[in-house]
Structure formats: structure tokens, C-alpha cells
Design goal:
The structure holds 2 protein chains of 2 kinds. Chain A has 2 domains: 227 residues, Zn peptidases (Aminopeptidase, 3-Layer(aba) Sandwich), CATH 3.40.630.10; 81 residues, Elongation Factor Tu (Ef-tu), domain 3. Chain A contains 8 helices and 17 strands. Chain A is α+β, with helices and mostly antiparallel strands. By secondary structure, chain B is of the alpha+beta class. Helix content of chain B is 26%, strand content 26%. Chain B contains 9 helices and 17 strands. The chains are: A alpha+beta, B alpha+beta. At the A-B interface, β4, β5 and α5 of A face loops of B.
């Protein structure tokens, strides 16, 4: 299998902070429309691609949104004050470039601070180069959201970009969707608003009410210098989730995934994430409960502008998801 | 003035009976159907000429307050907050306790007896007590029970010509907006949910939305205004006199930008002033409503109020009138502007 690097690049580089996922959804729609029996959108904006079948009803969730910033105030001098969307490491944002939906770009600056500990969102601003408020308002208004810039780099087996969380999950879902051969009825849901509290997935799960669900998302690793202890490494295969803050995956789901990986010689590792959650959290608690599991793509520097994944892990995740859905 | 009656009623979270009955008696002539659901939400519906889209409007009836948690040997009462109450605003205020609304004063050591370090930090709940004039536990228990609600004792007044001060503007002012809206006739079916237990975690609204199952929802709130002298401009949430505040994002919801843009257009075309709610903290019933069942498109429009969650909050009457206008226009334009 070879990865479609151009598509991965396009997915990660597209603008899509939580609440503004439409550009990402358009790209995905163009890719998958010929492979879906039906494409619908729900009230929250999730895009659902249905592949009809007579077997089990399965839902796959990959979130399309990324973390970002929202403008809350425009200063007379043209600087933009903002609030964060999702889990932004505020102290890492200084000097970063951001981009708005209309393509306007800016850089994040900070007030003079005597102590680095004072770095808080309210001390930062975005400078789009406007000379005053009037000029700024020609391009940007209160309520507009910005995404971080973080270019795509291919470096041997490794890929670096912003927003692998979770465009790489979207990519995995797209590849599986295109090549799937199963009797099961599969709903590929490209969800919204995961980063602000896994909000989109629950609504989709309610409407679809599947027998089983798989979320595809990124997870952290413990393979960097003096990292927080975590038994997940880049390049060691697809990660099968055991638990995180939003779900303890049912042992039967976990074992089923492990068996499939072993049977088909798909490299895998087990994942215990001590922080964060995924769409599987709200999905498994929908209605009377829905069995759910997670396939995670190991990712370094999650929520930075330079997230890093390994191509082999992406391939393994595609293989594993495909086999799980075909079971 | 209806706002005076609504704000002076004492009904904290979980204890909405009195305000519910008041609102029910007011709106009954204007609606086709009224019921109270199992959580205590008051649901009032009006048919339209069409069957769809069905619109739910929500304002919460409950207010923040306090609750008796123990009766002390000396006849004083210890208490806990119900909802988000700033302990720094409590000392020396008068309150009403329990169903009988007996008088009480929130007491604390006077300045003469305080140690230096005690003077330098606000009194916490454990250092405050309520004095109801009882001299023993036994005597106090004749008048109050554990679990009794304690209400802020504060009257509605007009400030200057255009401002009002009252307790519980959050969210009786929203209830008042929706009572006015219920007097209008619409092409579409509308249900107003006067919800319970918002202040303790948006508990009523989700249940209401589950039962009503609307196509679109509008939450009307009394929200935090911070246009006071020491505010840093970029941290001001909303300002009095600038019109209804449209929510962009808070802790519980990200509001659909495409819908917000259309509401802005409606406001501008009809010359109704508006502002955005420009902070991301806090939350309201929209947080629960928009995630109900398969998801419900939901917006929030608020009347800016200073000093909310205290004994005296302040609102600007023209903001109230403009909120009524804007909500009315949103309902009327729901199909024309394709808000759903």
C-alpha cells in the first residue's frame, strides 16, 4: 500500500477550527462521494457517508475540526484579542502565524511581561498588519476564527504538519471507505467540534444508533527525551485504545481488535492515555450504550503546529480499520 | 411592572414552584397548551399556521441562592451556595429563610474582633452564618429545617430613568422577554420552555428539549456585563445600552457562525442594535439543548446585566425592549433567512 501524500497534505493544511469545519468537509466530500450510497449532514454539521449493507450497523468517527483561536475584540490600533478554541498551549503560541477563513494571515504577539509565568491568553494578540481598527475590520471581525499555520513536511518515514489531529484519522477513514468490501452497513461520520468537548459525535451516534462504533483519532507517545511515561511509540503500529479519560474500552472490543491485528499480521500496540478523550467517549454512552473502540495513530507533539506521525503507523491503522469493518 | 413582579419572586434552583405558577398564570391566555414536565420545566406552546419548523425558546426560571446545611447550638444557621454565589458579597446582607420567608442577616465577626489576616481575605462560607434572632438550636429549629432555601432579600427599583436594579435579573429578564414573545402570533409553532435548575448545571433544559424536540432553539439569558470603570477593554464581555448580546462561544457551546451572520443581517436590516458576547467563559441552557437527541441548531441572545448572581443586578430597559424585538424578528425570518 502506498499513502496518498498529496491528499494528506491537503487535508492537514486546510482551515478548520471547531465550528468552521466546512472547508475540510468539502475536500472529504469530493474524495468520497463516488464511494458512498448517501451523504447527509445533521443539525450540528457532521457529514455522514453511508455505505449500505445487510450486516451489522457500524459507525466510524473521525473528527474534522482542529484547535484554533476566535477573535473577541479589535483594538483601536488594529490588534486582535482572542480566546482559544480547544486545548491550545497558550505559551507555545507566541510568534506563531495564524490564518483566517478568508486567507488573511497574522502573527501572535505578546504584551511586555516581566515574568514568563504571566503568559495568558489575555496578554496575547494577533497582528494582521492592520494600521488601525477600521483597516482590521475590513478583513476580520469579532467571532471570526483562526487556525494555526504549520506547513507540511515529509521527512523519510515521518510526516510533520499542523492538524494531524485528526485529519490523519480522516485520511485513514477515507482510504478505508474507498476500498471497503463488506456486507456490513457502515456509516463514516466526519464529525465536528471534537476539540471543544467531543460534541458532534454524540448527535451522530444518536441518529445512526449503530451496533458498534470505532473512533479514529491520534494519541500521544512516550518515545521522546524525558517524555511522560507512555507505552506508545512512533513506528510501532496502530494503537488499540485500552482507556483514556473518556472511555474504558470494553475488553471484548479490545480483544476483537487485537485478534484481527494478530491474524492479519498488522503491527499494533496498546494505548493507555492518561489525559484527553475521543469521540468514542460520548458515542459509547449514547442512548442505552453503544459498544465502541478506538484506533489511534501515534502522534508526537499533539496540539502543536508540528505534529509528527509515521507512515507505517498510518498504513497499519488503515489495514486494521478495514479488517475490523469487514469482520 | 412585570419585571418587578418576576424578579421579586423568590425561587432558587430546585424550588421554582412560585415563579412557575406566576408565569403560568400570565401566559395561559396567550398559548394553546401548557404543561409541566417531570423536571419541573414549564412548557407553553402555541400553534402556527404551519406545522414546521418547530421553534423552542428557553429562559430559566431559577435564581442562585443559599441553603441551610446545619443549625448551630447558638441558634445560627450554616449554609451552602445553590449555584455560583460569590462569597465576598454576602456579609451583612438581609435574607429570607424557608417557605415562611423568615428574616435573617448574614453575620460575621465585626472588624473589631478580626485578626489582621482575617481582614485581608474575604470571608469564606465557613466563617459566615445566618442570624435569625434565635438563641438556641431548639428555637431555630421551630422556624427552619435543614435544606430550607435562603433567598436574597432585595427589591426591584428604577435607577435614573432608564435602568433597573433587582436580584435575579439572570434570568427573570429572559423569562419576561419570552412572555412578551408569547403574546405575538407566528406562522410557525413555538414552544417556550421556562426551565429549571440552570444555575446548578443546565439540568432542566436538556429534558425540555428532549420532550419538545424542536427544529431550532433560541435561548434568552441575562448575561454578564462588565462595562464598569476598571475593566480592560478587551476583556469586557458585554455593555449596557448596546443592545442584545449574541453568543459566539462559551464553555458549553460553539454557536453556528453561519446562523449568527444571518441574525446580524436581520438585526442590521431592521435597525435593532446588537453586540456580541465577547468572552468564552460561562454557559447557558444552549449547552444542553444543542446536544439533545440528534442535535438541535441553537442560538443564544442575552440582555446584558451588571453584577449578576448578586443581591442587586442592573439592566438597561432599552436593551430589554431590543431583545424582545430581535427574538421576534428571528422567529419571523426563520424560513426567509434559512436559519435551519
Amino acid at each position: 500500500m502506498s499513502l496518498n501524500i498529496e491528499l494528506i497534505k491537503k487535508l492537514t493544511q486546510t482551515y478548520g477550527p471547531s465550528g468552521n469545519e466546512d472547508k475540510v468537509l468539502e475536500i472529504i466530500k469530493a474524495e468520497v462521494k463516488d464511494f458512498c450510497d448517501d451523504i447527509t449532514y445533521d443539525a450540528l454539521g457532521n457529514m455522514i457517508c453511508k455505505k449500505a449493507g445487510k450486516g451489522k450497523k457500524i459507525m466510524v468517527a473521525a473528527h474534522t475540526d482542529e484547535i484554533g483561536l476566535m477573535v473577541t475584540h479589535i483594538e483601536d490600533e488594529g490588534f486582535l484579542r482572542f480566546t482559544t478554541i480547544g486545548g491550545v498551549f497558550v505559551e507555545q503560541t507566541i510568534g506563531r502565524r495564524v490564518i483566517f477563513k478568508n486567507g488573511v494571515q497574522g502573527v501572535i504577539g505578546v504584551e511586555h511581561l516581566e515574568d514568563k509565568k504571566e503568559i495568558k491568553t489575555e496578554k496575547l494578540y494577533i497582528d494582521i498588519g492592520a494600521k488601525n481598527k477600521e483597516e482590521a475590520q475590513k478583513y476580520v471581525n469579532i467571532g471570526d476564527s483562526a487556525a494555526f499555520a504549520g506547513e507540511f513536511i515529509e521527512s523519510g518515514d515521518r510526516l510533520i504538519s499542523k492538524a494531524f489531529d485528526d485529519r490523519i484519522g480522516c485520511y485513514v477513514a477515507i482510504e478505508v471507505l474507498k476500498n471497503l468490501k463488506t456486507k456490513n452497513e457502515v456509516y463514516f461520520v466526519f464529525t465536528v467540534q471534537e476539540e471543544v468537548g467531543t460534541r458532534g459525535a454524540a448527535a451522530a451516534a444518536y441518529n445512526i444508533h449503530p451496533d458498534f462504533a470505532v473512533a479514529v483519532d491520534v494519541t500521544s507517545t512516550g518515545d521522546t527525551p524525558k517524555a511522560k511515561k507512555m507505552a506508545v511509540s512512533l513506528g510501532k503500529g496502530a494503537a488499540i485504545k485500552v482507556m483514556d479519560r473518556s472511555i474504558i474500552v470494553s475488553p471484548s472490543v479490545r480483544e476483537m481488535m487485537i485478534e484481527i491485528a494478530q491474524k492479519h499480521n498488522i503491527p499494533y500496540q496498546l494505548e493507555i492515555l492518561e489525559f484527553g478523550g475521543t469521540d468514542a467517549g460520548p458515542i459509547h454512552l449514547t442512548k442505552g450504550g453503544i459498544p465502541a473502540g478506538v484506533i489511534s495513530i501515534p502522534t508526537r507533539y499533539v496540539h502543536s503546529v508540528s505534529e509528527m506521525v509515521d507512515k507505517n503507523d498510518v498504513e497499519a491503522s488503515i489495514e486494521l480499520l478495514k479488517k475490523v469493518l469487514e469482520k | 411592572m412585570l419585571l418587578k413582579e418576576l424578579t421579586e419572586i423568590m425561587s432558587a434552583s430546585g424550588d421554582e414552584k412560585e415563579i412557575r405558577e406566576k408565569i403560568k398564570s400570565i401566559v395561559e391566555p396567550y398559548v394553546d397548551n401548557v404543561y409541566v414536565d417531570k423536571m419541573g420545566n414549564l412548557i407553553t406552546c402555541k400553534k402556527g399556521k404551519k406545522d414546521k419548523p418547530k421553534i423552542m425558546l428557553a429562559a430559566h426560571m431559577d435564581e442562585v441562592g443559599l441553603m441551610v446545611k446545619s443549625v448551630n447550638e447558638d441558634g445560627t444557621l450554616s449554609f451552602s451556595p445553590v449555584g455560583g454565589v460569590d462569597n465576598r458579597i454576602l456579609v451583612s446582607k438581609t435574607v429570607k429563610v424557608g417557605e415562611k420567608k423568615i428574616n435573617g442577616v448574614i453575620g460575621a465577626k465585626p472588624i473589631h474582633l478580626q485578626k489582621r489576616e482575617e481582614q485581608q481575605r474575604p470571608l469564606d462560607y465557613d466563617s459566615l452564618y445566618i442570624d435569625i434572632g434565635a438563641t438556641s438550636k431548639e428555637e431555630a429549629l421551630k422556624h427552619v429545617s435543614l435544606g430550607d432555601y435562603i433567598y436574597f432579600d432585595s427589591n426591584f427599583e428604577i435607577l435614573g430613568n432608564d435602568y433597573v436594579k433587582a436580584k435575579a435579573l439572570d434570568d427573570r429578564i429572559g423569562c419576561n422577554v419570552l412572555i412578551e414573545v408569547l403574546k405575538n402570533e407566528y406562522e410557525y409553532p413555538i414552544c417556550v420552555a421556562f426551565t429549571v435548575q440552570e444555575e446548578v448545571g443546565l439540568r432542566g433544559a436538556g429534558v425540555a428539549a428532549y420532550n419538545v424536540e424542536p427544529d431550532f432553539a433560541i435561548v434568552v439569558e441575562g448575561t454578564v456585563a462588565a462595562d464598569v470603570s476598571d475593566s480592560v477593554p478587551h476583556l469586557v464581555s458585554t455593555e449596557l445600552g448596546k443592545g442584545p448580546a449574541i453568543s459566539l462561544m462559551d464553555r458549553t457551546a460553539l454557536y453556528d457562525k453561519k446562523v449568527i451572520d444571518k441574525i446580524v443581517k436581520i438585526a442590521e436590516e431592521n435597525k435593532v442594535p446588537y453586540q456580541f458576547r465577547r468572552i468564552a467563559s460561562g454557559g447557558n441552557d444552549a449547552g444542553k439543548i444543542h446536544l439533545t437527541k440528534g442535535g438541535i441548531k441553537t442560538i443564544a441572545v442575552s440582555v446584558p446585566c451588571r453584577y449578576i448572581h448578586s443581591f442587586n443586578s442592573v439592566a438597561f430597559l432599552e436593551d430589554f425592549n431590543n431583545t424582545v424585538k430581535l427574538v421576534d424578528l428571528i422567529i419571523k425570518n426563520i424560513e426567509k433567512e434559512a436559519l435551519i
